[in-house]
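ok so i was messing around last nite and threw this chain in just to see what happens. nothing serious, just curious
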Amino acid sequence: MTEPALPPAPTPAFLYGMPVLGTGETVSSIGAALTGAVLAPAGRRWRFAVAGTLVLILLWAGLRSAVPAALAAAGAGWWIGLASGCLLISGLLLLAGVAWRCGIGRLAQTAALLCAGLAALHPVPLHSVSLAALLAAAGGFWAAALLPDLAVLRDRLAAEPDRRWSRVYRVLSAGWSGSALQWLAWERASRGFALLGILAAVAVLIDLALAAAFRTDRHDTLLPVALLVEAVLSAAGLIAALTVTLRRSLGLYGLITGRHLDILGRLILAFGLAALYCHVTENVTALLYGDSVERARLTRRLLGDEAPAFWTLMLAGLLPTQLFWIAPVRRSAIVLGLIGALVAAGLGADHVLAARTGTTETDLADLGTAAAAAIGSAGLFVLGLLLLFRLVPPVSIAETRQLALAHNPHAALGAPEAELEFSRDRSSDQGPRPGLLAVFASEAELVEAVRGLSGPDAPSRLDAYGPVPMPEAAAALHVGGQRLNRFALSGAFLGAAAFLAARVIGLADAMPEGLADVAALASPATWPVFWPVSWPLSWAMAAVPALSAGALGGVLGLGAALVVALRATRRDHRPPSALAGRFVLTIDPSREPDAARFNPAALVRRLNALPEAAGRPLALYGPSAPVRLR
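result:
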C-alpha cells in the first residue's frame, strides 16, 4: 500500500511577508539616497531642531552644578549603559553576520560614540581607563565602518574638485579605492573593532557593578546580569526611537523597512521580559528570604522616598515593553518609537536607585533638577546626531549595497553610457593609465575573468575594485592581506601590561617601604600586615580595569594596523570616479623584468573570447577609447 503523496513544503517567506530591503533598491539608488541626505542643503526643520537642542544645552549647563554628586553619577551610569548596549548590539550583529544590520548599524555605532562622550562629561564612579576604553572602542568602530562611505561621498563630489567638502572627504577617505585587498583589510578590522567594543562594553558594565558593590557593601550576583540586560534594553529602545525618526524624516522607507521595526520590537520585548524578571526576583527574594534591613529597604523602595524612582522604572522602563506581545502594536512605527524613547529614558531611574542606595545624603527632592539636567544632556546628544548625520550617511552605504546585490541580481551598475575621460581623473592626482579597465556586472563574472587571465606566463598585474567586499575576487587574485589581529593582540597585551605596571607603582607609593613592601606581598600571609587600607583588597578591582586597558590597547593597535594596511594597499592608479560603484578589473603591465611583453590588443581578444556572463566584460577601456563588448 503506497503512502499518500504530501504536498511540497512552501518556500520560507520573509518575516510576516516584509522584505528586509525595498524591492527596487539598486547600487545606484542606495548611493543617491544616502549621499543626497548628506549633500542636500539643510532644511528649515533641521535648523529649528538645532535651535531647540541649543536651548536644552543651555538648560543643562545651568543645572549641572545644582545636581547632587550621587545623581550626577547616576546620569553617568545611564549614559554608560546606553553606550555599552549600543556597542553590544552593533558588534554582535556584525560578528553574527546578520544581513539586515545595515539598517540600524550606523545608528547604533553613532549613538554609542555620543553616549560614551556624554558619560565622560559626568562624574564617573569607576576607573578612568574603563571609560577611555569604551570611548576609544566606540570611536574606532564608528570610524572604520565609515571609510567606504566617505569614499562614495568623495566620488560624488569628484566633478567639483575645488569645493571645500570635496577636499575634506578626499582627506577623510584615507586613500580608499575599493580594491579587493582594502575590502579584506576593512572586513577584518571591522570584526576586530566589534570584538574589542564588546569586550570594552562588558568590562565597563562589570566595573560599574563593582563600583556600586564597593560603595554600598552589597554584593548581589544578579546585579551584573541586570546591568547588562538593562544596557541592551535601553540601547534597543534608543535605536528604535532613532530609527523611526530617521526613517520618517529622510524618507528611507526602502532601506529601513517594516522588518527592521518588527525585529526591534521583538528585541525590546525579550530584554524587557528579562529585566522585569531580574527586578521581580530581587524584590521577591528580599520579601521572602531577606532580613529586617532588606525588608525595610524594600518597603522604602515601594512606599517610601525611593518610590518615585522605582515606579518610574517599572511604569516607564519595564512594563511598556510587554505591549509588544500585541503584533499590531509592535509593527506600528509611531508606537515603537514612543515606547522605545520611554524605555530608554525610564531605565535611567534604576541608576538613580543605585545612587540612592549608596548614600544617605541625597534628597530625592532634587530628582526634578537631575531629570531636567538629564533632558538637557539629551539635547547635546541630539545635537551631535544632527551634526554628524550632516557629514556622514546615516545608514551604511557599503553594507546596504551588499544586501541589495545579494537579493537583487539586477541591482549592479552597468558600464557608463557616456565615453570615459580616461586620460586623467580629476578626483585624484593620477597620471595616465598604461593598462586596461574591464567593467563587469557582478563579482562572479569578474572572478571568471581573473581566472581566464591568470597564469604563470601572464604579462600583466591584476587588481579588482568594487562597491562591496569581494572575498571571492581576493581569493582568485591570491591576496591575503596583513594580519591585523596580530597588531590588535600586541596592543592589548601592551595596554594590560602598562596598566598593571602603573598599578604596581601606585601601590608602591602607598606603602612605607615602597617596592620592598610590594615584594613582600608575594606571600598572602603578609597581606593583613602590609596591604594599604586605602586600596581595596579585591582581585576584580584590578582585573576588570586591566581588561579595559587591554581593550584600549587593542583598539589603538588595530587602528594603527588599519592605517598602515590602507597605505600599503594604495595603488598608483585606481579606477576613475566615473566607474565608481561598479565591479572593475584593472590590467596593468607586470613589473617583473623577465615578464612577457604587455599586449593590450591580445588581452582584449582573450577577454572577448570568454563566455557571456562568465568572464566577458560589459566594457573595456584603454588609453584611447572605450570598447563596449555587450
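not much to say yet. The chain has 23 helices and five strands.
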